[in-house]
Structure formats: structure tokens, C-alpha cells
Write a structure and sequence with these properties.
The structure holds two protein chains of two kinds. Chain A folds into two domains: about 10-355, Rossmann fold, CATH 3.40.50; about 370-455, GMP Synthetase, Chain A, domain 3. Chain A is built from 14 helices and 23 strands. Chain A has helices spanning about 10-20, 35-55, 65-80, 90-100, 105-110, 135-145, 165-175, 190-195, 210-215, 220-225, 240-250, 370-380, 415-420, 450-455; strands at about 30, 60, 85, 115-120, 125-130, 155, 180, 205, 230-235, 255-260, 265-270, 285, 290-295, 310-315, 320-325, 325-330, 335-345, 350-355, 360, 365, 385-395, 395-405, 430-435. Chain A has a six-stranded mixed sheet, with helices on both faces. Chain A has a five-stranded mixed sheet with strand order 8-9-10-11-12. In chain A, strands 13-14-17-18 form a four-stranded antiparallel sheet, with no helix packed on it. In chain A, β10 (about 255-260) and β11 form a beta hairpin. In chain A, α2 (about 35-55) crosses α3. Chain B has a single domain (about 1-15, about 40-85), classed as Non-ribosomal Peptide Synthetase Peptidyl Carrier Protein, Chain A (Orthogonal Bundle). Chain B is an all-alpha fold. Chain B is about 55% helix and about 0% strand. Chain B starts with 5 loop residues before the first helix and ends with a helix. In chain B, α1 packs across α4 (about 70-80). The chains are: A alpha/beta, B mainly alpha. The interface of A and B includes residues 191, 363, 393, 414 and 432 of A.
Chain lengths: ~450, ~80
């Protein structure tokens, strides 16, 4: 029998406090209604009771609708039930079963509200991480301190809640007791600003690629929103200096916080873009309770200013990796090797210079091209393929599959896309499929990825 | 040889981006976001590829008003003659 070490998770505690002190404050704005904090608490309590009655030691949360996700997520924090946040693959079910078999181990690792979230990670193997809800709540408070958001703010969340960034924003909003406007997805980048108007949303969050797209094609919409937007958290991928400067110019009065982080540890460092418009584009000062070190290839610590691999650790660090085949505990004080390359400035700010491995950062998610290639070859044995990045607009990459088939009756892109959708998370699926007469190869027979990038980009060989 | 109009060419680009089967009929009047695979990056890809194909530049105002494929095609046609 699972032994609850805490009555409920701290995020639920925050929700209850807000419901008691500000019961009539709008908690959520969604397509079907605008429940207040009092109403939200009631609904969460009902769902938590249902979860308890089910007697499950785990709960799987699937994708949208977001309001359902939010209610169930908060209910698990009351019931203190381990929650597996599905990434849309079948792996979530087997991971939940694994957790059930390892209930005691989970209890020994996590103080409150255990949650498992999938990460794109930096290896080809699909994996999820076990996080401690208590630590995630502390992190949310630290992020709120940095961003300076208040209970009066209304934040528009268009990010997927099953991803670390989106879920983190939800935690921050609930922890602060502010109003959250949930939107399933947007079809056009400038909708982001249109959607802020009806309920006077003044807080936003988007990935670095979205910032670049907005600056490239929707500068007017950005500028027009200047008086309305109070804060924006930007994350998941680096933003070069020119884009930072442009954002600050267009939103001079907004708090523009950018983070460097990972699912395993949430935010590692944050920077206020208004203070980062000259010199190297720093990822910012490490967050409270986070340590950063730079190492050489042997693992020895580099001195300030010298570049190397970024290692991180902290109180909110994952407690275990959860694979289909087991639970691998991560001892406290373990350093996480990020496979990112960077250095620490004299003022202590971290500068991220890029990736050390072949892992790509595409639209804010880490993409392992070899994994997509492996699945494609498994599904279509007569295809050969290589997956490479192509630039959509300056600074924004998408994944493209270049394919070779000996058959005239070859699978079309719709078949390729739908087949991959059943096996891979969305960010690992190419946005374009390009057939080539032959895959370009080097003298040693290996695929020539540089030439494949030219094909993927529509450039002549 | 079949004569390709702007409408058929853009519909084909749209079909590619939305990963729609080749035999599936596309309703130009449907809202772009009604398509399951459509997102904000898809829209940018449609714009970028259309601009490259016709050597035009769509303005921010053009994009804001194009919620359907039909509206987008109409805007591209008018831009081609204007530019």
C-alpha cells in the first residue's frame, strides 16, 4: 500500500489558499467557461476524490483539451498520486505499470506529488523523468520571483501542457494565483497577440523559434502589443543577440525573461533580456539552488571563461530516469552532463554556445535524427533515408527527411507522416519528406549529411 | 500538359505541408487551423514557400486576413499582379 508522506502536494495547497482568500477571482479562461478559484478548487476536489476511489497508484494524463489536463493534473497533486504525463506514445502505459510495480522506490525518492514527464533528451532512447512535485513547486516560486508576475496578471498559455515549458508555466500561474487563459493551439503566429485582447491577457510564453518568426513576419503585431504585454518568458532554445535587441526594442516595458533549462532540472539559468543586449548572449545567472560547472573532455573543471561541456545539478533535479525496462535512480548531488557547450563569464553568467553532439534543437525540442531514421527504416524496409535540418526562415530550423526508394510505388508523405505519428512524438517527425534519386554518399559509403541538407533545403547539388 | 493555376499550385503546397493524402479533396473554404496537422509553423512554411515560388513578398496585413486557403490564394493572386 502506498504511504502518503504528505497530505497533498504543495501546488494543491497554493490552489486551496487562493480559493479561500480570493474565491471569486477568475482562475481559468477557456472555450467553455471562466471558472473562479473557488469553482476550480471544487472541481479539482471532485476529480481527486474520483482518482482516490479508483485506487490507482498512478494516473496517466493525455494531451488536450487543456482545461481537462489542468483539472486532472491539479487533482493528482491533491491525491498525491504519481502522474504520468503522456507524450502521445504507447510507452506511457508501460511506464505507469512500471511505476506501480515500484511504488516503494518512488515513495523513497519523492517527497510529494510525484510526476513523470517525457523528455526529448539527448539520446536516441525514449525516456521519461521522475520529478518531485515539491521541488517543482519551489521552482515555480523562483521563476515567479524572477518574472515578477502578480495575481492580477492574466497569462495566455498556448504551449503544450505535456511539455516541460508549458507545464512549468501552468505551475507558475497557479502558484501565483493568477488567471490562466488556455488555448489549444494557434494556427498563425500573430494569433498569439489577438488572443490576448478578449480577456486582457498580459503574460505570454513562447519558444525562441516563435520569437524569431514573430520578429521576421509579425513585427507590427509585436509592436502593437507593446502597451498590453507585461511579461514574456522565452525558452527552450537560445536566442541570438540581434533577436534579443529587437524584442527589447519592440516591447520596451515588458519583463522579458529567457531561460536555459531542461526537463530534468527545469530552469537552470534565467536572464532579463533588457540587461542582455550587449556582449555575448548569456543564458543568465544560475537559478537559486542550481550549480553549474564547465568541464573539459576528461571531466575536469574548467576555469572561468574557458569553454567546455556544461554540467548542472540542483535541488529540483530528477529523482530517476524511467524507461520501459526499469527505473534508474539518480542520486542527489549527481551532475547532469548536458551535452551543451559553453562557458561561465567573470560575473558568473552562463553562456551557452551550442551542442556537443549531433542532437538538433528544432523548434525548441531536442531532436535525434538517427532515431527518426531508425523508425522510418523499420516501418518501410525498402526505404533508405536521412533526416537533416533545413532553415525555414533565418534562425528557425525544421526537420526534413530525404528519402531514397527503389520502387516507383513508394509511400507518399501522408502515409509516412501518419505511420511515424504512431511511433514517435511530434517533434521527432519530419515536416517535409523529399524523395531523391539517390541519397548522397561519401567515399566511405556513409550518407553525406551536408549534401542531404542541400537537398532538404531545395538547393541544387 | 495540364495548365497549373495559382490555386492548384498553392493547394499542392498546402497538401504537402499538412501531410494530406494525394487523393484527399481539399476544401479551400475551410479554416486552415481545422486541419489536424496545421500549426503556426505550418503557416510560416506556406508563406515562405509561396513567396519563393512566385517571387513576391506577403505583408503582415496579408497574412493576418488569410484564415482560409481560398483567402490566401486570392491574396497571392492579387499580389502577383500588384508586384
Amino acid at each position: 500500500m502506498r504511504t502518503d508522506k504528505a497530505e497533498h502536494g504543495p501546488l494543491y495547497g497554493a490552489l486551496r489558499r487562493h480559493a479561500l482568500t480570493e474565491p471569486h477571482r477568475n482562475a481559468v479562461i477557456h472555450d467553455a467557461g471562466v471558472p473562479t478559484y473557488g469553482e476550480l478548487l471544487h472541481e479539482v476536489d471532485v476529480r481527486a476524490e474520483l482518482i482516490s476511489q479508483q485506487g490507482s497508484f498512478w494516473h496517466i494524463l493525455h494531451d488536450p483539451p487543456k482545461v481537462e489536463f489542468m483539472l486532472d493534473y491539479l487533482a493528482t497533486t491533491k491525491a498525491n498520486t504519481p502522474v504520468v504525463i503522456s507524450d502521445g506514445t504507447t510507452t506511457a502505459g508501460s511506464i505507469a505499470s512500471l511505476l506501480r510495480e515500484n511504488t516503494e522506490a518512488v515513495d523513497s525518492l519523492v517527497v510529494a506529488a510525484p510526476e513523470v514527464i517525457f523528455t526529448s533528451g539527448s539520446s536516441a532512447k525514449a525516456k521519461a523523468v521522475l520529478l518531485d512535485g515539491h521541488q517543482m513547486y519551489r521552482k515555480a516560486l523562483q521563476i515567479n520571483d524572477f518574472m515578477g508576475n502578480s495575481p492580477e496578471d492574466v497569462e495566455l498559455i498556448t504551449l503544450p501542457l505535456r511539455h516541460s515549458f508549458g507545464l512549468g508555466r501552468l505551475r507558475c500561474a497557479v502558484a501565483r494565483g493568477q488567471t490562466t487563459r488556455l488555448v489549444e493551439r494557434i494556427g498563425s503566429p500573430d494569433e498569439l497577440f489577438e488572443l490576448t485582447k478578449p480577456h486582457a491577457a498580459n503574460g505570454l510564453a513562447f519558444i525562441g523559434s516563435m520569437a524569431k518568426i514573430l520578429l521576421s513576419r509579425h513585427e507590427g503585431a509585436l509592436a502593437e502589443s507593446a502597451g498590453r504585454i507585461s511579461y514574456v518568458e522565452i525558452g527552450s532554445e537560445p536566442l541570438e543577440l540581434e533577436f534579443r535587441q529587437a524584442l527589447v526594442r519592440l516591447l520596451p516595458d515588458a519583463r522579458l525573461g529567457m531561460h536555459y533549462g531542461m526537463t530534468e532540472l527545469s530552469r537552470v539559468a534565467m536572464v532579463d533580456l533588457r540587461q542582455s543586449t550587449t556582449g555575448p548572449a548569456a543564458a543568465g545567472q544560475p537559478m537559486p539552488e542550481v550549480e553549474v560547472r564547465i568541464t573539459d573532455p576528461s571531466g575536469a573543471v574548467e576555469h572561468t571563461g574557458r569553454p567546455g561541456e556544461i554540467w548542472v545539478r540542483g535541488a529540483a533535479m530528477l529523482r530517476a530516469y524511467v524507461h520501459e525496462d526499469g527505473l534508474r535512480t539518480v542520486p542527489r548531488q549527481t551532475w547532469l552532463q548536458t551535452k551543451d557547450h559553453g562557458h561561465v563569464r567573470e560575473d558568473g553568467a552562463l553562456v551557452v554556445e551550442g551542442r556537443l553532439s549531433t542532437v538538433l534543437n528544432i523548434l525548441g525540442k531536442k531532436v535525434v535524427p538517427e532515431e527518426t531514421e531508425r523508425v522510418l527504416r523499420g516501418l518501410f524496409p525498402r526505404l533508405d533515408c536521412v533526416c537533416v535540418p533545413a532553415e525555414l526562415i533565418p534562425g528557425v530550423l525544421i526537420l526534413v527527411a530525404v528519402l531514397e526508394s527503389p520502387d516507383t510505388d513508394r509511400p507518399d508523405r501522408a502515409v509516412l507522416h501518419s505511420s511515424l505519428s504512431e511511433r514517435l512524438p511530434a517533434h521527432q517527425i519530419p515536416r517535409r519528406f523529399v524523395y531523391a534519386d539517390r541519397l548522397p554518399r561519401l567515399a566511405n559509403g556513409k550518407v553525406d549529411r551536408a549534401c542531404a541538407i542541400d537537398i532538404a533545403s531545395g538547393r541544387e547539388l | 500538359m495540364a495548365q497549373h493555376t495559382v490555386a492548384t499550385e498553392i493547394t499542392e503546397i498546402f497538401r504537402e505541408i499538412a501531410h494530406l493524402p494525394e487523393d484527399m479533396e481539399v476544401d479551400p473554404a475551410a479554416t486552415l487551423t481545422d486541419h489536424h496537422n496545421w500549426d503556426s509553423v505550418s503557416q510560416i512554411e506556406l508563406i515562405v514557400r509561396t513567396e519563393a515560388k512566385y517571387r513576391i513578398r506577403l505583408t503582415e496585413g496579408d497574412l493576418r486576413e488569410c484564415h482560409t486557403l481560398a483567402a490566401f490564394i486570392q491574396r497571392v493572386e492579387s499580389r502577383r499582379y500588384a508586384d
